[in-house]
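Supplementary notes for students who missed Thursday's class. We covered one full example, reproduced here. Read the sequence, then the structure, then the short commentary at the end.
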Amino acid sequence: MAGIGEKNMEKIASFTVDHLRLQPGLYVSRKDRVGAETVTTFDLRLTSPNEEPVMNTAEVHTIEHLAATYLRNAAGWKERVLYFGPMGCRTGFYLLLAGDWEPEDVVPLVRDCFRFIADYRGEIPGASPRDCGNYLDMNLPMANYWGRRYAGLLSNMGRDRMVYPE
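Structure (token representation):
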């Protein structure tokens, strides 16, 4: 943007998280006010940044299609789901929900979503040339793997995986 130089820019919140200590988990990334409403952004971290290989784009894309479909159909939640999508670093996903939420509030929803991904077989929703701009870049077996892995983590996760490391 014109008029904004490097020296004038503040470091954004997601770049202040210590990624050297961050482990897979489910974290509140931020809470924003939009008028009278709160929007909660969750960090669904599937890999240990800078320690493990990142997810490939095909499985990230598949997870995005499956999770977005599941979440936007989830009873009691679908009206609150604003966005589900991948992090650019491919270590996890962001989930934006209308309302003021804590990780404990959404662990069951996210766990069930990733169980759905783990067990999913068949046609991937929206994976057609008419519905998606890159419909061939899909990998369901790897999405199933990541679904099992993350659902397992969420089933046994302690509070330490819900609070960013300091």
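Commentary. DSSP finds three helices and four strands in the chain. The beta strands are 25-34, 37-45, 81-86, 92-98. If anything here is unclear, bring it to office hours.
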